[in-house]
Design goal:
Elements (H helix, E strand, L loop, with lengths): L5 E6 L6 H13 L6 E6 L5 H7 L5 E4 L16 H6 L4 E4 L2 H5 L5 H13 L3 E6 L3 H5 L3 H13 L8 E5 L13 H18 L2 H6 L2 E4 L7 H5 L6 E4 L8 H5 L4
Parallel strand pairs: 1-2, 1-8, 2-3, 3-4, 4-5, 5-6, 6-7, 7-8
Helix pairs in contact: 5-7, 7-8
This protein binds 2-phosphoglycolic acid.
């Protein structure tokens, strides 16, 4: 099929404590994980160092957000330099909760993408339409516009994973059907081909997020343009292992 390595990210959001995350880490460290899958766990910032020190090195760690400059008077923020200093290679940017709960604009997300990539931090860049946008038939316009702002800030796509996460599917138990996910992923790849290059379109992993579970992951993973997942709720449970192994 294609040479894109399957990518499964866990997004633990603001959940867990040292004890429960320690148990989850033990489960992941001792599980049999498909070598053909790249796995990255998004930990709360205060636990990044703890998680990196406990989690097996075959599993990557991601911050869930960061700021757009290396340092300075930005109370409460963390920088890519700090994330890198903790031995962490990835950051999730533009998650729908950052956009819609904390009001992050496309412009700010673009600036963060640029600075993280300049700092040599891999970026899991999230996009996705709200329910009313899907119902109004504007899904394509919304995700293309969000992708354009990200693309305008990327020079080298080898450290970028694009996560399509329809807002109506996040944390709702209402997963996009495999056909719905494939349709948007295919269009996104077409956008990358038309606006960037064949090489970018063929190599960038486009992963799906929104109520992915052990039960629905295999059918989604079988879609040709679904190159992995970003998993919230189920990434805190042992079934995350089944999702990692969805293509096994
Ligand atoms: P969910 O979250 O799997 O709980 O729907 C996905 C996400 O927010 O990345």
């Amino acid at each position: 099929m294609c040479s894109r390595k399957f990518f499964v990210g866990g997004n633990w959001k603001m959940n867990g404590d040292k004890e429960s995350l320690g148990e989850l880490i033990m489960t992941l460290n001792t599980a049999s994980l498909n070598d053909e899958t790249e796995v990255v766990c998004g930990a709360p910032s205060i636990y990044l160092d703890y998680v990196r020190s406990k989690l097996d090195q075959r599993i990557g760690v991601a911050a869930q957000n960061c700021y757009k400059v290396p340092k300075g008077a930005f109370t409460g923020e963390i920088s890519p330099a700090m994330i890198k200093d903790c031995g962490i290679e990835w950051v999730i940017l533009g998650h729908s909760e950052r956009r819609h709960v904390f009001g992050e604009s496309d412009e700010l997300i673009g600036q963060k993408v640029a600075h993280c990539l300049e700092s040599d931090l891999g970026v899991i860049a999230c996009i996705g339409e709200k329910l009313e946008e899907r119902e109004a038939g504007t899904t394509e316009d919304v995700v293309f516009e969000q992708t354009k702002v990200i693309a305008d800030n990327v020079r080298d796509w080898s450290h970028v994973v694009l996560a399509y996460e329809p807002v109506w599917a996040i944390g709702t138990g209402k997963t996009a059907t495999p056909d719905q996910a494939q349709e948007v992923h295919e269009k996104l790849r077409g956008w990358l081909r038309e606006n960037l290059s064949d090489a970018v379109a063929d190599s960038v992993r486009i992963i799906y997020g929104g109520s992915v579970t052990g039960g629905n992951c295999k059918e989604l993973a079988a879609q040709p343009d679904v190159d992995g997942f970003l998993v919230g709720g189920a990434s805190l449970k042992p079934e995350f292992v089944d999702i990692i192994n969805a293509r096994s």
